[in-house]
Design goal:
Elements lengths: L1 H6 L8 E8 L5 E7 L2 H4 L2 E4 L2 E3 L11 H4 L6 E6 L3 E2 L12 E9 L5 E8 L3 E3 L1 H9 L1 H6 L3 E7 L6 H14 L15 H10 L13 H13 E6 L9 E5 L5 E2 L4 E2 L5 E3 L13 H19 L8
Parallel strand pairs: 4-15
Antiparallel strand pairs: 1-2, 2-3, 5-12, 6-9, 7-8, 7-10, 8-9, 10-11, 13-14
The site of flavin-adenine dinucleotide has 15 residues, from strand 1 and helix 9.
């Protein structure tokens, strides 16, 4: 890609930061620089058109230079992060995963189903990451403190699970509960849930007291995890927020406020769930902006 860019006449200056953009009265822009590139480029570059593709940043102040130009910024918050659960009932199960669980944030309208991974610090996996993306703003408001309820049997309701257990007890009364995992759950996870329900290693299904059975059903449907924080900055994948889409022409990615200024990628208020959608958004908007910038008429004064 770099070779292709160089062949097309693109000059690449690394370790060089754009500090400030000034829209010039005669048209075009002056771009104040810092870093190594200043030695060859000087302290400022003149440009008839400018593309801002500086990526996301969860710190609001990182967008001040774009606010100063006259743009607004949808407040940035992190997205695609995992949950920290310091006092997790699953803390002895790092590495255990299930292909299909439901994660519900108690008292909120936030839930997601998908693969779930127990980690050393809490829980991760697509179910958590995607929930963090859909709930990025609300979870930020909650300071990343909430109760996550995990259903390990998302196909079941309270009623259907209760019926299932009643029938299973009738058919398998002599089977030991802890030793035989059900619902395709990993043995270690099943054992942990059964033990937390108060069942001993020898208990048979026919001997399970009503209280322990209720507790097991509750844990299967709603294992409560006290979420206290998220993965720290740098480990989260994308930023929710940025330049509002209403301030950009979708066909060209040109600013609706400052002619000649273009935006592409995560600096825009676009964030996707996992699965390559963020790369796709960056590539697509970059392509559109590049095409439009190459064919747009050069403003006379800056030509
Ligand atoms: C660990 C991790 C894993 C990811 N995995 C995936 C994935 O699997 N699928 C997916 O779709 N997305 C993924 N993403 C998100 C994806 O990488 C981004 O959405 C995408 O790279 C955004 O592209 P961009 O060009 O807009 O910004 P970036 O790739 O962030 O590039 C912006 C560049 O601008 C530079 N810059 C910033 N400010 C200035 C300035 N003032 N002056 C000069 N240069 C500046 C930065 O140094 C950076 O090099 C992941 C992100 C992370 C952090």
């Amino acid at each position: 890609l770099e070779d292709a860019a160089r062949r097309a006449g693109v000059r690449i200056h690394t370790r060089t930061a754009a500090e400030q953009i000034t829209a010039l009265p005669e048209g075009g822009f002056s771009l104040a620089l810092s870093g190594e590139g200043v030695a060859t480029l000087g302290p400022a570059l003149r440009a008839s058109r400018l593309l801002v593709a500086t990526g996301g940043n969860p710190k609001s102040g990182a967008y001040d230079w774009l606010r100063e130009l006259g743009h607004t910024v949808a407040e940035p918050v992190p997205s695609l992060f995992t949950f920290n659960v310091p006092a997790s009932p699953l803390r002895d199960l790092p590495g255990v995963s299930v292909p299909h669980a439901r994660v519900v944030i108690a008292g909120e309208k936030l839930q997601y189903e998908g693969p779930l991974l127990v980690t050393h610090w809490g829980v991760s996996g697509p179910a958590v990451l995607k929930l963090s993306a859909w709930g990025a703003r609300r979870l930020h408001e909650l300071s990343y403190h909430s109760t996550a309820l995990i259903s390990w049997v998302p196909a079941h309701t309270d009623e259907s699970l209760r019926s299932w257990v009643q029938q299973f007890r009738l058919d398998n009364g002599k089977k030991q509960v802890v030793a035989h995992a059900q619902f395709g759950l990993p043995t270690r996870l099943w054992r942990t849930l059964a033990e937390q329900a108060g069942l001993g290693p020898e208990t048979r299904w026919s001997e399970v007291p009503a209280k322990a059975q209720n507790r097991l059903l509750e844990l299967l449907l709603r294992t409560p995890l006290q979420v206290q924080g998220k993965t720290t900055h740098k480990e989260e994948f994308v930023t929710c927020g940025g330049i509002p889409l209403a301030e950009v022409n979708f066909k060209t990615m040109e600013s609706r406020r400052i002619p000649g200024l273009y935006f592409a990628g995560e600096v825009l208020d676009v964030d996707g769930i996992t699965g390559g959608f963020n790369f796709q958004a960056a590539w697509t908007t970059g392509f559109l902006a590049g095409q439009a910038m190459a064919t747009a008429p050069v403003p006379q004064a800056a030509a």
